[in-house]
Design a protein that fits this description.
The complex is a heterodimer. By secondary structure, chain A is mainly β. Helices cover 0% and strands 54% of the residues of chain A. Chain A has one domain (4-105): Immunoglobulins (Immunoglobulin-like, Sandwich), CATH 2.60.40.10. Chain A has no helices and eleven strands. Helix content of chain B is 0%, strand content 52%. In chain B, strands 2, 5, 6, 7, 10, 11 and 12 form a seven-stranded mixed beta sheet that branches. In chain B, strands 3-9-8 form a three-stranded antiparallel beta sheet, with no helix packed on it. The chains are: A mainly beta, B mainly beta.
Amino acid sequence: TQLLEQSPQFLSIQEGENLTVYCNSSSVFSSLQWYRQEPGEGPVLLVTVVTGGEVKKLKRLTFQFGDARKDSSLHITAAQPGDTGLYLCADPANFGNEKLTFGTGTRLTIIP
Amino acid sequence: DVKVTQSSRYLVKRTGEKVFLECVQDMDHENMFWYRQDPGLGLRLIYFSYDVKMKEKGDIPEGYSVSREKKERFSLILESASTNQTSMYLCASKVPGGGNSPLHFGNGTRLTVT
């Protein structure tokens, strides 16, 4: 069974600071999804990365997929209180297998 | 927008009770999923279904069953609730055909078994 490890588990920073969270796998990802779960809600997809070395930007969020497709990072610039939430990475299984494997998550708190 | 609706936000049940958690999606998705979410353990797949009356076990099916009589509705059943089933339960749906399409989640049901 593939293991997805996310770090740090908890992160609390001041508004305006930058931060990076990580997702690492014990095996090669087919592709990778990042979700954000705000308090009291279900996770919502932020991005899917597919190609090794790929970089995607979503406003102040930058997602990077490792060259070897075994790791990914999420960098947030000038964090805002609205960024508070649980960030989850997920590895869609091989084509035809509908299971998703989720990491344990990084719980991010932005202090105003 | 896709809407996945879970019938209860909070439930409190007693040990040994039969518990039904209901989930309805409005986007005609073939695939539906039940996860439980626990601190430090992330989301763990209980069961999923890729069509009406079809079901597959996920990572932690023990103590649970499911029902999919209609395409839009996927029910999770705890036959005899136990305290170790106290958790947040999340339902999700997606289109079939590979893993890159997103999961659409409901807002969860927080179940407490006393």
